[in-house]
Amino acid sequence: MNKNIGAALILALGTFALGPVLAGNDRLTEFSNQGTIGNTRHNLTQRPTDGSTAINAGMMEAYRNDYQQVCVYCHTPHAANTNINAPLWNRTVRTTTYTLYTQQTLSQDATQPGPNSLTCLSCHDGQTAVDSIVNMPGSGGYNGALALNPSAGTMESLLDTWRLNGGDPAAVTHQGLNSDPNSETSCLGCHSPGKTSAATDFTVFALGTDLTNDHPVGVKLPAGSDWNVPSGTFQNIRFFDKDGDNRPDKNELRFYDSGDGFEVECASCHDPHGVPGTTSKFLPTFLRVTADGSQICLTCHVK
Ligand code: HEC
Ligand code: HEC
Ligand code: HEC
Ligand code: HEC
Ligand code: HEC
């Protein structure tokens, strides 16, 4: 075991009583949130691309394969996962039945999340390790038979075959955003209150498979005067075309049709690469439209 991993393990096991440095509702991030996804929390190499200091990269090395590329945790240029209708998708997507939002005020039954939510849920539902990808960097890193038909055990062993700079692959465990902080395979083993004090609390980001307490996905715009109606249509996207260029831009909220009509999905409201606001910083929480004054809500809802 090398020194870095040893130190990380000690920190993982230690429960320091100092309390979290950043409170759970604190939006602070060590990344600059500017310019590219490389400077956001969606950079799982933990090495910002703007040249600022690595984010405790040493400590993180033992908990996910460090592929040293930003996009590869989600996309691959070749041999993508075509089981899901998402752009050059490189992640394992498990067949999961989600518990849907069911308040009786809803005017329709929500349908199961479509591809434009399943991409996000492939990390945020905690069922799959964040480094679980179909095509790992370098030669020999592809095993379609295993990766496209995942079953927990075999997937682990595939990920175990990857190594960085000749390092010991067995020293790396593959963790997910499992909502149980006591699970041996959860990132929340550090990133939750009472665990490693230096690690940000991620509890609220671990959505799980129960979506009853989340804004509904798999829902269409109901008829009636309670709604603004988007003007633009492009392929399977209907969108609020703010600049009238007939293209769904990243700062334009949208509905996706994956067979059940135009529906709200995770990517209706969020762009996982970050969207600039009025300052040079990205809008918080990867939103396409700011939540200031509830502008995002009022784009769809007339309230
Ligand atoms: C954390 C996961 C994640 C990472 C990392 C990521 N993407 Fe994406 N990307 C997505 C998702 C999810 C979509 C589909 C969004 C949707 O449903 O509309 C997407 C869509 C795209 C698209 C097509 C639609 C669009 O938004 O333009 C391009 C091009 C793209 N990504 C490029 C990149 C590049 C280049 C990188 C690395 C610099 C990258 N992505 C990193 C998740 C990611
Ligand atoms: C490769 C895994 C992965 C994928 C795919 C992914 N995320 Fe994340 N996301 C993370 C991680 C890791 C974090 C940081 C901590 C956490 O959420 O536990 C994060 C953080 C976030 C945050 C909180 C950001 C903040 O600063 O408050 C939001 C919002 C988010 N993701 C939304 C999405 C959406 C929406 C999608 C799909 C369009 C998506 N993510 C796809 C891994 C992923
Ligand atoms: C050994 C404890 C430990 C484990 C396990 C761990 N992390 Fe971390 N992580 C840290 C520390 C410490 C930091 C730096 C402090 C901070 O920013 O939270 C950090 C930072 C991060 C950040 C950047 C937070 C920011 O500043 O925006 C992300 C994203 C992240 N970790 C994701 C993950 C993911 C995904 C996993 C599971 C694969 C994971 N971590 C597992 C300790 C850990
Ligand atoms: C109707 C718009 C909308 C949809 C759809 C949506 N979100 Fe969000 N999401 C938001 C807003 C707004 C916030 C910011 C909440 C805040 O500031 O507290 C947010 C916050 C988050 C966060 C940060 C945690 C938090 O509560 O602050 C994560 C992670 C996240 N969303 C993931 C997802 C995923 C995954 C999906 C799909 C299952 C999704 N979102 C669907 C609007 C949406
Ligand atoms: C992309 C469009 C869109 C955005 C943005 C959006 N919503 Fe919704 N919302 C919908 C749709 C469509 C429904 C389903 C309505 C129905 O079937 O009755 C819905 C449902 C709801 C419901 C449940 C209503 C019920 O009857 O149970 C609430 C509450 C809600 N939204 C609040 C919000 C808030 C708060 C925000 C901002 C954080 C927001 N929405 C942003 C489209 C949107």
Produce a short descriptive summary:
With 303 residues, this protein is mainly α. 16% of the residues lie in helices and 5% in strands.
How would you describe this structure in keywords?
single chain; mainly alpha; 2 domains; five-stranded antiparallel sheet; 5 strands; binds heme C; Paired_CXXCH_1
Q: What is the topological layout?
A:
Layout: H1 3-13, H2 57-60, H3 115-124, H4 144-148, H5 152-159, E1 219-220, E2 232-234, E3 237-239, E4 254-257, E5 262-264, H6 266-269, H7 295-300
Antiparallel strand pairs: 1-5, 2-3, 3-4, 4-5
One heme C is lined by residues 37, 42, 70-71, 73-75, 86-87, 116, 119, 267, 272-273.
- Count structural domains: 2
Radius of gyration: 20 Å
Order of H and E elements: HHHHHEEEEEHH
User: Strand content of the residues, in percent?
Assistant: under 5%
Number of E strands: 5
Which residues sit in consecutive blocks of at least 5 with pLDDT less than 50?
A: 1-26
Overall, the morphology is globular
Hetero groups in this structure are: heme C
Major beta-sheet overview:
5 strands, antiparallel
Helix content: 10-25%
Query: Mean of residue pLDDT?
Result: 85
Strand order of the largest sheet: 1-5-4-3-2
Ends apart, CA distance between termini: 58 Å
The count of helical stretches stands at 7
